[in-house]
């Protein structure tokens, strides 16, 4: 059996307002994160719209481990491990496709796309063998919330519903932006290789303190008013949903001016087809409110970032290397909106993006900084004196406060010591 | 008679090839030396700068690309670099690229379709990175000089995770 007693004393590395740099660079910590976070808890894998037809599959991951997300022959979503149970060969070499079975190229064992072994080559050599012993490995638990597919390597544990908790409201808010209440991730992912520990990304996604400085160049050049959302005068909120899920809530800002689609830098007159479809779907009043509130900015622990107009998936591959996968959000029944979503996403994110190239520069500098010996601790005190609670009891703070980061580490400590 | 015509045609073709080659070498140098304004001036008003992802025959209007800039977005890209606060280029990447296999694919009217391969060595704070690309250009003769109307940069590994690509590729 695995000995689950931690090699590190995490209570001495994580305090309420500061954390030790070793958490970012220590390979042993990374190995323990794999067993305690990535290969135990709920991790976002993919979206059902990526495998719309029966027998579609796409290669995804849970941490460094590749996972085949299959819309299988029975019509279910299966999460299979990409490894032939015979001699351990990598089974499927493609990132996506449509097939009813997978044949290992090494000795030609063939598996149904639901994981069962269908047949061996030269079956005479397997007299008396029980085929059911040789099914593909699979992620034992799958949870799907409104099309978002999560997997957990633990046979039992909290339900996905309980795990998502307050963050479900962000997914609901997101899907409200579709006249049909559905998402379609059809634009393909950019993959941004990053020489930094994954937690620098996790912490930064809902950090409202950095944009004025890290993104000042593009705010200046594009003459967008976005910079004001991250200023001391901002009424936006940071929020800790618990379970490591955090939010940068822009709704107070959008509600202040109450202009539909201002969140997207446009207005209803310029997207008439979309506005009409929303009104038809939700009624005038509700549609107006949805278009004022816009799309959420929420980081679902440990790896799903809903970033208003795009969706990021964080994939740690080593203690000092992370892949940021990103695609444009695409709302079903909203072609006008979707085109702009793709254009804006391509401009802002990915390896050449106006925003993410600079964020990623910071991640890599974060990591190099962590390796410098003194001071050993990073500090997370910002806004401690003005942290409050919202009507649902979640911790909230000013747009620029470190409420999310403190919340993330609180949850992380729980996971690493339980 | 025929031999003379052929010789003239060959000479014209060679002349065009030299013109194209010199233009591409200049573009490469302006990129390597971060000569942003001069590089931007190479573009026509309808220029398209495209770096596809996940394959080389994708539809940039439907699927994600690393870069898919129209002329105004090329301008934003340059302006951001010139602020001095484009952190990923502060300090700037040190670059040297080798351009080869320059081939004129076709010519119609004022426009010339060209292909070339490039290998770019980048040194920056993160370390050293080698980029390899198959490029396609649409060059246009404007007032007797070549301009760039379209540049497609096909990273050979564009289906894989790639590091930050913030210099002009
Ligand atoms: Fe950022």
Ions, cofactors and other ligands present here are: fe (ii) ion
Please state the average pLDDT score of chain A.
96
CATH topology of chain B: Nuclear Transport Factor 2, Chain: A
- Low-pLDDT stretches of chain A are none
Characterize this entry briefly.
The complex is a heterodimer of chains A (418) and B (169). Chain A has helices at residues 10-13, 22-25, 27-38, 160-164, 168-176, 198-204, 211-214, 216-222, 251-257, 272-282, 284-293, 335-348, 356-370, 403-417, and strands at residues 14-15, 18-20, 43-47, 56-62, 65-71, 77-81, 96-98, 101-103, 110-112, 117-119, 141-145, 148-152, 190-194, 237-242, 245-249, 297-300, 304-307, 310-318, 321-328, 377-379, 388-389, 395-398. Chain A has 418 residues and is α+β, with helices and mostly antiparallel strands.
Chain-wise SSE layout:
The complex is a heterodimer of chains A (418) and B (169).
Chain A: H1 10-13, E1 14-15, E2 18-20, H2 22-25, H3 27-38, E3 43-47, E4 56-62, E5 65-71, E6 77-81, E7 96-98, E8 101-103, E9 110-112, E10 117-119, E11 141-145, E12 148-152, H4 160-164, H5 168-176, E13 190-194, H6 198-204, H7 211-214, H8 216-222, E14 237-242, E15 245-249, H9 251-257, H10 272-282, H11 284-293, E16 297-300, E17 304-307, E18 310-318, E19 321-328, H12 335-348, H13 356-370, E20 377-379, E21 388-389, E22 395-398, H14 403-417
Antiparallel strand pairs in A: 1-2, 2-20, 3-12, 4-5, 4-7, 5-6, 8-9, 9-10, 11-12, 13-19, 14-15, 14-22, 15-16, 16-17, 17-18, 18-19, 21-22
Helix pairs in contact in A: 10-11
Chain B: H1 2-32, H2 36-40, E1 43-52, E2 65-69, H3 71-82, E3 94-108, E4 111-124, E5 127-142, E6 145-155
Parallel strand pairs in B: 1-6
Antiparallel strand pairs in B: 1-2, 3-4, 4-5, 5-6
Residues 210-211, 214-215, 355, 359 of chain A line the site of fe (ii) ion (FE2).
Tell me what the structure shows.
Chain A is of the alpha+beta class and about 425 residues long. Chain A contains 14 helices and 22 strands. In chain A, strands 13-19-18-17-16-15-14-22-21 form a nine-stranded antiparallel β-sheet. Chain B has about 170 residues and is an alpha+beta fold. In chain B, a hairpin with a 2-residue loop joins strand 5 and strand 6. The interface between A and B is large, with 40 and 36 residues. The structure holds fe (ii) ion. Fe (ii) ion binds next to helix 7 of chain A.
